[in-house]
Hints:
- Chain A has 313 residues and is mainly alpha-helical.
- Chain A is 74% helix and 1% strand.
- In chain A, strands 1-2 form a two-stranded antiparallel sheet.
- In chain A, helix 1 packs parallel to helix 8.
- Chain B has 481 residues and is of the alpha+beta class.
- Chain B contains 14 helices and 22 strands.
- Chain B has helices at residues 26-33, 37-54, 82-106, 111-114, 120-125, 172-185, 187-192, 201-210, 234-244, 301-306, 324-327, 330-338, 355-363, 389-401; strands spanning 57-62, 65-70, 73-81, 146-153, 159-165, 222-225, 247-249, 254-256, 262-266, 269-272, 275-278, 311-313, 350-351, 368-372, 382-383, 406-410, 416-421, 424-433, 435-438, 442-444, 449-453, 467-475.
Amino acid sequence: MLSRxxxxxxxxxxxxxxxxxxxxxxNVGSQLQLDLPRSMRFAWRPLIETLGAADxxxxxxxxxxxxxxxxxxxxxxxxxxENPQSLHEVVRQARELQRSVRETLPxxxxxxxxxxxxxxxxxxxxxxxxRYRQEFLDRVIDSCLRVSALLTANVSRDIGxxxxxxxxxxxQADMTSRIIDTAAAGLxxxxxxxxxxxxxxxxxxxxxxxxxxxxxxxxxxxxRVSAELALQFLLKDRQFPRSVLFCxxxxxxxxxxxxxxxxxxxxxxxxxxxxxxxxxxxVLQTGPxxxxxxxxxxxxxxxxxxxxxxxPN
Amino acid sequence: xxxxxxxxxTWDELIGHDGRPHAAARPLVDYLASLSRAELxxxxxxxxxxxxxxxxxxxxxxxxxxxxxxxxFDLIPRVIARAEWDRTAAGLRQRIQALNLFIGDIYAAQxxxxxxxxPEFLLKxxxxxxxxxxxxRPPLDIWAHICGxxxxxxxxxxxxxxxxxxxxxxxxxxxxxxxxxxxRVFPELFETSAILPVDNYPAQLYDTLAxxxxxxxxxxxxxxxxxxxYNSAYFEHCYLAQSMGIELVEGGDLFVGDDDxxxxxxxxxxxxxxxxxxxxxDMFIDPExxxxxxxxxxxxxxxxxxxxxxxxxxxxxxxxxxxxxxxxYVPKMIKYYMGEDAILPNVPSYLCHDDKERAYVLDHIEELxxxxxxxxxxxxxxxxxxxxxxEHAQFRELIKANPRNYVAQPTLSLSTAPxxxxxxxxxxxxxxxxxxxxRKDIYVTTGGLTRVAMKKDSLVVNSSQGxxxxxxxxxxxxxxx
Lengths: 313, 481
């Protein structure tokens, strides 16, 4: 397998998974907003930061000047051509990557991703409006899952497939940790300490929903949602496929199928160790963002080791 | 389909002047006559859907966007009798053999120049002559391993060679796909007629490439070098790489080591490459030797090739014979190198560097087709009878300013074949591009790619200018029941 092709497969599956998570994140934000009393506001800022688009946002809307309304923020996150992290841009990248590895993936995948891209292009005007947003985001999530399903159902389990799986796993681990970070930063701007307490639970519920984890959480933990248990579930659950630990364990299973590279194994061991050792209660006490920042750095190092080992240049 | 109103202004590939089909085409014509218009439309639709599903596209770059376009496919095949094809194939073999001898001579002793059969100044001005290749002897002394020759038929039925593409000829994948489509659409005819198969090409091409490996005995590592996804023939590059089971690589995937060996970067580390089927033009193939700004090529590739560590097909420099002026000398080459007369006639050419011939061209420009020597894709040419007075004057000036760069040919009355039009069969002009593979023996495709002008009366068949394609049937008459 050519390094370039492996790299493109890896990035293709990362962008695909990123697009899906991005759509979920915006969806849950919109939903949560509808449930909030008038006295409270949904804070979009942490969400923009989570997606790594804060610099671009500030450049377009300098702090202190008039800030865009909700529809404007949503448009920025989904379809603004000025935002290199927008959903539109992420899907465009996935499509370009797929185009360059067309000979290695099934034709259906190309048709599906092309269809999604054209749908987003055609919907840029409507994506901001509340009325169509739900429909738009559902369609995006469905299309992403459809491509994933085509890959799982129809692609031979060769080394190229392992790079697709690696990309998906590392992107989900990364996105899950980012979304936890957002929740910790506070999605709701309360007026009083009392309000904050009341909506804390709601906030973690949203995060679970965002990662399609709420139902599984209830089924497996059979308890009401608490910050500590939600964190435990999203970080360390061994069975839920979007938990950080699950994704890392999956990577551990893939590595023996690839040419052995010591730096990759070391980087994985390190981040796995951090997740194993994490105690949710303590993480909450010290402020989750400290822990999540470290996790992000270690995931970055794993990504770097993978790239350096299998596709340098 | 109703043939009664069908009349071609010239020679037609299916229907004779008397309105009756040629013998080889009779089963097809009769069969089509038995189908209703609705049945035909349904089959054309099936053909389009099949082509779309198979992803038969070429890429056109317009207004900063890449569009994958379908190559228009016409349902009605073009039919050639096997006896005629065998003769034509013999002519092509003879031609490519002479061309390879010529290229080898030009980069070595240049005997043909010393013997005054081929004028030296033509070589000096040729934009496709590569001084960097002088003194190199490629494996088997073959330079043009893959050749696509364009053939046209005149109004009197004579088949002529029009040009030889020795650089990076394309279109062979359409030939194979067209056959897959027509087999799905006309299975009945394949049962009753002896239509010779074409799908052997990728295996033949693989053998041609494998024979060049500098490490004979071992299974060679072969790659197709593509300029990438924005190239108009990218579909074909993918198709050929897949059907031969070889790697599809871009310049950035390859590097040449200090040992002069060419490697590709894989997830397992560097892997040696033995043979490269390059679909990147000479000038872009190695920035160390040719265009330094090229990002499509591989620095050091020519060094590796010269050292015999990697084989390139086609060999750099092979394009020296892919020139509309050099083309005019092919019959002389055949005589000079092989002592034979050309089996396949050349389209007569007037060379503008010759005073007498130039004078004739300037006087008769209204009747002639004038072509620049080194353009392809049908660009930059003048079709005299269809051009305006101003265009005639413009080309007279162009010729006077740079006579060596222009060739003129009589305007042939290009043959036609019926396409499925809105109101039944309509004649359209066409040509034929067979592909010829040279190794120890020479392989010629069975028929080739028929390119057809989809517009009424148009003589330009290039896909970049609105041409389409047809399946080409070589039919064995002895086996027709």
